[in-house]
Design a protein that fits this description.
Elements (H helix, E strand, L loop, with lengths): L1 E4 L5 H13 L3 E6 L4 E6 L9 H4 L4 E5 L19 E3 L2 E3 L5 E5 L6 H14 L3 E3 L17 H14 L3 E4 L5 H5 L5 E4 L7 H10 L3 E4 L6 H13 L5 E5 L16 H9 L4 E3 L1 H5 L5 H11 L3 E5 L17 H17 L5
Parallel strand pairs: 7-8, 7-14, 8-9, 9-10, 10-11, 11-12, 12-13, 13-14
Antiparallel strand pairs: 1-3, 1-4, 2-3, 5-6
The chain binds phosphoenolpyruvate (PEP) and manganese (II) ion (MN).
Length: about 350
């Protein structure tokens, strides 16, 4: 249920709404906008609560039920687009933010060379996995904490922010302040202990869409992070399982439009894991920018043939440089920039 306060409502009037919600055993989340406050009343019993119990309180402008299964991610709760800040970078603003780097961190040399190249081409965030959730236990599992150490050295050397995946709540201690943006991977989209832990950490995070999840399930997963008090959620479409086998996953470009329509959260696209093949990545990347994605997450490797993971879908340095030129033109054509 959403309680919209009148413009200029006083703090004690907002407090009265919160107190009544709590007296009804509900949780509360506030969206304090520039000229009005919106109070989300949350919990399993809100459907049974008479909206008049809130409508009668002073300075309440309206009370509406959120009919959608996702609440805090919805446009009903927050009309203005959310922006996520990482230092000076804004995700969800005019700029399309390019995050690029290897699937897995393999060595200091590999990560540093990739970071220098992608940054020179216009990427502003370096990706690199250390805790890898691999489908097979026999695949390379990532360098773990040693990989995070490499990432943090390169971050210090170049001053470039890092995005890296965590797969378990205790990894929050391992990444500590050494990673700027946390990634929750497709396989963990419904790992609720991880979602809650990242929510409580309040740290900027990317929530990838589960590989067989509907948009609604994805947004309900986002609600777990938001409801734990973390507003810094970036959604990432990375392709879903369909009957089609000519790509690794089917990139659901329409989800970008749906998410933009129904939520206030920024959304980025990972064309690499969707395509599964380097030849297809540029097409999907261009389509994503044209569709209005707020950023891209792209795998780039200095030597894809010898990559320890996802070499087939990783772009070479020169392919990435060419793609960036094309993406800049597309962004400009739709009133955005890279
Ligand atoms: C990744 O980004 O390396 C990754 C494992 O992605 P996903 O969770 O989308 O499969
Ligand atoms: Mn990968």
């Amino acid at each position: 249920m959403i309680v919209e306060m009148q413009a200029g409502a006083r703090q004690d009037q907002v407090d009265a709404v919160v107190a009544r919600a709590r007296s009804l055993s509900c949780d509360v989340q506030l969206n304090v906008g520039t000229n009005k406050v919106v109070v989300a009343i949350l919990g399993p019993h809100t459907g049974q609560i008479n909206t008049d119990l809130f409508a009668v309180l002073p300075a309440v402008a309206s009370v509406t039920r959120i009919m959608r299964p996702f609440k805090l991610a919805s446009r009903e709760f927050r009309q203005d687009a959310t922006t996520v800040r990482i230092g000076d970078l804004v995700i969800g603003g005019k700029a399309v933010v390019i995050m690029a780097g290897p699937c897995s961190i393999e060595s200091h040399e590999q990560l540093l060379a990739t970071a220098k190249h992608v940054r020179a081409c216009g990427a502003t965030i370096l990706r690199g996995g250390a805790f890898k959730p691999r489908t097979s236990p026999f695949s390379f599992q990532g360098l773990g904490v040693d990989g995070i150490e490499v990432a943090s050295q390169v971050r210090e050397e170049l001053g470039i922010p890092i995005v890296s995946e965590i797969t378990e709540p205790h990894h929050l201690e391992d990444v500590a302040d050494r990673v700027d943006l946390l990634q929750i991977g497709a396989r963990n989209m419904q790992n609720y202990a991880l979602l809650r832990a990242v929510g409580e950490s309040k740290r900027p995070c990317i929530l990838k869409r589960g590989l067989a999840s509907t948009v609604t399930e994805w947004l309900q997963a986002a609600d777990y992070i938001l409801s734990a008090g973390n507003p810094n959620v970036i959604l990432c479409e990375r392709g879903i399982r369909t009957y089609e086998t000519s790509t690794r996953f089917t990139l659901d470009i329409s989800s970008v439009a749906v998410v933009k329509r129904d939520t206030h959260l920024p959304v980025i696209v990972d064309p690499s894991h969707a395509a599964g093949h380097f030849q297809l990545v540029p097409t999907l990347a261009r389509a994503a920018v044209a569709a209005g994605a707020d950023g891209l997450l792209i795998e780039v490797h200095p030597d894809p043939i010898n990559a320890l993971s996802d070499g087939l879908q990783s772009l070479t340095f020169s392919d990435f440089a060419s793609l960036m030129q094309e993406l800049k033109a597309i962004a400009g054509a739709i009133g955005r920039e890279i």
